[in-house]
DNA sequence: ATTAGGG
DNA sequence: CCCTAAT
């Protein structure tokens, strides 16, 4: 049972530039609520909330608050650790630099998440704007998503809006709560900072060109010191800096796990912090300007190291690397982003094409589960190009095809022990995925996304097709065909039947393109006539990646379903008309010689279904409608050749009887 | 390898 | 589309 707590935090310590008093007094205090799990509030949540609030107040110098600290603890949530320092730490800790780096980043989240937020004293949390911290080599600073995906900045936090998340290739995910809630942008989302600046500037006048900001997150203490009764929600309040915060002024002397000993404050973009541990009872009024003194990063680092050496951290150290797979191939980790929704870092499929993608998923909050998905395999990609196609063009074709597949036509499914987990609202814990799971049990699937990969051929019939086209979320009477991206046909060098002229061939190809489910697969520049991205293995999965190895051998894979197009049907009918129903090999050679995926068995089967289709009522037919004219020809040809066959049968049998009778007579 | 037919 | 018996 998760309790929602109601906490009230006051932010104080704004470095507010001169603002007309009138304007400032207009908004002394503002507050908003953020529904947060008080007990398990994630550092990321907190951070994002604070940062977002700040920004929504009009702060514009930087979109993100990249670091925050629990006093006395290293609390960078940012890869701002210089390489030099990394190596120092490495020596100190005797660990690999990476591990150390991650540990540093884990530190805060561990503290925060291992302990209820309410256990953290109001003055123990500090936020520092990222500008004030030495910037890592993270290009794309700003609110663009780039800094979220830069490899060097994996753990940096920023403001996450649906927009920049999307553009970074990441997607907000939510482990619990209703879908509605998940989709809702949180309070911290800041989309149009420029706009906001304008409006907020005038109305609140709270913050303008502040280039450094410091927050204190305070636990809610009413002035009397009594604990708030209602703690159902986390409440965040922004308090103007020249107004002492009632929430933060209380000097708690309670002994906490995390004794503040270090304060960080920023003035004009420079990191300042006391060189000595400050008192446990910081005066909120002081700390803004007066009490802070300049301190460089090393200074801070020294303190941290000192603290580290002096005591054990009140949290259990975690294994940071228990990657599941030790596959040797693949591309290095992809984009990372932090999801404030659940406090996890998630790397997502980017749009960069590669047949083998490696995806890292980090869960850094408590109960962390670290997953590494190595090498998503795009199972089958059917491409047919002409022999005269250049290698470069082929590359481009493949690239675009992969792009088309990865670029949104896919969704990811999760398999646990072979069973598909469909409930997106379940947490990993509820599902049974934990870090000590055998990772073999966990698998992912790439599936066609029915909402993105549109297609008439997705639709079993006309009716649902229209629904699909008119409605983004169609309710189809039939289950969508699982085999989505498929299209196709190819350039074929038919042993052209009499009236399958060049014109017909062209129309055939074009009509195939028209029926292409994914328009993105049409590649104008490419020389390929057609692309056939081919799902494989599972009915509704393009790929199943059980992390270890694919069980099903390739040979046992069911072929991809590729419905016949009208033009194919026409070619088939024409060939059968000429050759009859008993010579499927000839039919194949004549009309489908270059269509490698159509065997004579396929053609025979298709003819069978065509006959059946022609006999049933149009209402009962499914799939791409076959022109009645063709069906009529099917029936006609079928009748004719059946008759011929019967005749043939009669003949041969009569011949047989003749001979047998003859032999009986002549050979008594 | 093909054909024919059931599933 | 698959499977397979029968050619």
From TrEMBL:
Q: Where is this protein localized, as stated in its record?
A: Nucleus
Query: Carries keyword DNA-binding?
Result: yes
Report the GO terms under cellular component: nucleus
**UniProt-listed Pfam families:** Myb_DNA-binding, Ubiquitin_TPR1
According to the record, the residues making up region (Disordered) are 470-523
- Which keywords does the record carry? DNA-binding, Nucleus
Domain Ubiquitin-like, residue spans: 369-439
Q: What is its main location?
A: nucleus
> InterPro entries from the xrefs?
Homeodomain-like_sf, Myb_dom, SANT/Myb, TPR1-6-like_ubiquitin, TRP_plant, Ubiquitin-like_dom, Ubiquitin-like_domsf
Q: From the UniProt record, which GO molecular function terms apply?
A: telomeric DNA binding
List the PROSITE patterns hit by this protein, alphabetically.
Answer: HTH_MYB, MYB_LIKE, UBIQUITIN_2
Entry protein name: Telomere repeat-binding protein 5
This chain's source organism reads: Dorcoceras hygrometricum
